[in-house]
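RETRY 2/3 - previous attempt timed out on the joint model. Re-submitting the same 973-residue input unchanged.
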Amino acid sequence: MFGKSYLEKHGLTREEFDIILEILRRPPTEVELGIFSVMWSEHCSYKSSKLHLANLYTTGPQVVHGPGENAGVVDIGDGLVAVFKMESHNHPSFIEPYQGAATGVGGILRDVFTMGARPVALLNSIRFGDMGNEKTRYLLDGVVGGIAGYGNCVGVPTIGGETVFHHSYNQNCLVNVFNLGIARKDKLFLGKATGEGNPVVYVGARTGRDGIHGATMASAQLSEESEKKRPNVQVGDPFMEKKLLEACLELFKTDSVVGIQDMGAAGLTSSSVEMATRAGSGMELDLDKVPRREEGMTPYEIMLSESQERMLMVVKKGTLDQVKKLFNRWGLSAEVVGRVTNDKSIRVRDKGKMVAEIDLQKLHDATPKFSRLDSPPFDLLKRRKVDINAIPQPRNLNETLKTLLASPNLSSKKWIWRQYDSQVMTNTVVKPGSDSSMVRIKGTKKSLAMSLDCNSRYCWLNPRLGAAQAVAEATRNVACSGARPLAITDCLNFGNPENHEVMWEFTESIIGITEACEALNTPVVSGNVSFYNQTDDSPIWPTPQIGAVGLLEGDVKPMEQFFKNEGDLVILLGETYLEMGGSEYLATIHGMEKGSPPSLNLQREASLQKLMVHLAHNETVNSMHDVSNGGLAVALAEGLFGPSREDGSRLGLEIYLNADIRPDFPLFSESQSRVVISCHQSKMDEVLQTAREFKTPAKLIGMVKKDRMVVKLNRAPVIDMETKELEEVWSSSLSSMLSMTRV
Amino acid sequence: MKLAVIRFPGSNCDHDLLHALKYRLNLDVEYVWWGKKTLEGYDVALLSGGFSFGDYLRAGAIATLTPVMDAVKEFAETGKPVLGICNGFQILTEARLLPGALLHNSSMKFICEDVKVKVETTNSPFTSALSKGEVLTLPIAHMEGRYVADEVTMKRLEVEDRVLLRYCGKDGQSDEKTNPNGSMGHIAGVLSEKRNVAGLMPHPERACDMLLGGEDGIKFFKSMVGLAKG
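RETRY 2/3 succeeded.
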């Protein structure tokens, strides 16, 4: 029965099977094998990453709950906390983009509201193959539709995110979804099954055969066979989620819930095992009581189903009637499926027969942890080598800038975010399209800014530096709105960890994230690892996605990236170096993805971010915009693409740069820790003086004008174009690439 | 005067509507659960945006089968004002309290953005405090917002001055470019024959705070404050 192919189907090795025999002292039943299989899957056990994740910087006075809970919890003052996390749904989305992405949103919402928080903002980072890839359009359409279909219906605004196209994602798209909720600090709920004899209650959708072994699927590489795994992808029901969300939040106001957890990956198995393990208790389950939507399901199928919109909770004895009544009012049923025990075991019965009995302590302690081998890619030095002087100089930089703004990665993503309800809940004070998005918290003077970032080209060229840059950029974007960065969540997307080079990229990235988080005082409070984003020999580019959260307090106006008034002065914070390696300019204009990414001085970055928060709080500036992909020229142009003015005209710029160098380099260098700000003329001295106090270089580079963007280098115009022309190519590019027209 | 915001499972702009009316316009407003059989004690009934019953089958279809909708029909028959916003508009057309239907946007995509709408009539309890031809900036957020009706109905709506709001540009002109979803006659909102039932796709409750980008929603709801004052 337990042949090699049978074990392979369960994603278990012969060695792991031997440990199972040792724990049980008998051959496992099919259900037990299923439980071990999913609990020890990469997805649930983090077996390849655990040793490294332990090194992350996760502490600070602002941290209420760090990694290990359903989501991270950060103190935002006045008895309130922000609860947030990011998760991947890459594999299912590649196989079935609409449902894969939709259920990703559903899962991350449950991770947050299960802790007692009302979700108030969704963001997502989605990555697809290049535009020439035939699947790109289909995947993009499905993923965006799925995110919109689910989030819009549940009524949580999708306020921002990131979209990247690159051939390394041709065979493995990425769908990383972020959710943030607000809770009272003294009203948090954890996934713990305590109190012997307390009933274990199942609420939400009935259990079907969908998603069986989804967690195991996400722990292996995709192959041509993956298409056949379509039935493994779960189907989402956002209406059920909405009812579940409202009912749970209502229930949390009563005094009946002891512990609660979403039945996510590995469904009933992981929720019951994890809740009992965390509490050091035990649990008995009676599968006859589990609501089902299909006849004839086996105990194995019930335990491993990943049907969506289900929660497992432990309630206080004696409150059951109240709980049932509340859920019934929302058209949901609550069924008792078991009880809490105190013998550190999980026992599962079906039709009175014991089908699984496992010692939880042993199951947990024996979870495999690998110290996988790692080594740098053999061609790393070749990747980093580039002779920038050999790069031909474009003759017409107007055209170069237009080409960059029209490129898939820099062009406007309005086609995407127009499909998301970004305003429901009436809290969105900075809408999609700026550096970070922001929601206010009603009844307080607090707002929260959020941004998701990662430059995977930097990470491919130098994972340690690239990962640190992702943290720096995400927190800088948050600071661009004036908010003080508080903490981050991560979603670490990599190829096959059994590949030494992939493992090296992973371990280097962890070091980079740790260094940056420590220097910027933004601990990691939650996260997710997604390995096996690889098809055959092609792993995705390392993508340690970072989501940063910041707090804006008091009567401070949130900042946007858009220039506001004609006559305002434009100041560049930070220094521009001759750093062309890994730039969007090299990639898009010269077809070269090479070189060393720009350097990053974390102390300078920290000072810069403090300066920005200070400037916003003193209302010294009118706009702030981070200089990132595409360099200064692109950042300046983006600052002009704000909401249209009443008279239909457009703002413009007149910029003066001085450098003894060919013009394309200062325009498109991607030197880090730079921000373009604008302020009223009367505030210039104050800005420059404050910058000195924060030890940040600041230079007046020009003025906000009307209609045209003009950049002069050593007084000679190198860019001179109508704002409308630039905006036209930038805003129409994506939809025309997708050959869709606005109605 | 007391206003009722009717809640169905799946409503998701109910909080926003209540918040705007209560805190931005100081109106006396309460939630009414879909199981209620009467609207006694209320003077205005409001149906909010969202996805009532998941919008399964058709947007707004299942909500019409609830007890509270029988109460809304009775309420409307007595001439009391009923306003449906977005999903509320869809429910009112499904319930035949308003003519026409709301189909998938012509782009077949969900659209969330600010649009301009022109006030076409002030002869209604919801627009009496506005001026005819006034242009408001209000957000839309819908998948099924393309207003359609048969030829006779379209003609009657125009002749009987029952077009409430029309999508337009900043100068009030309406053409294909200013029509976000392909609605017939660029219609964004309509009135019932008795003029006491109104439906509109834009969300005035989302435009009641400068912090969120505009206050034209307050202008829109001002007529209701007028009602309250009698």
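Chain A has a mean pLDDT of 93. Closing ticket.
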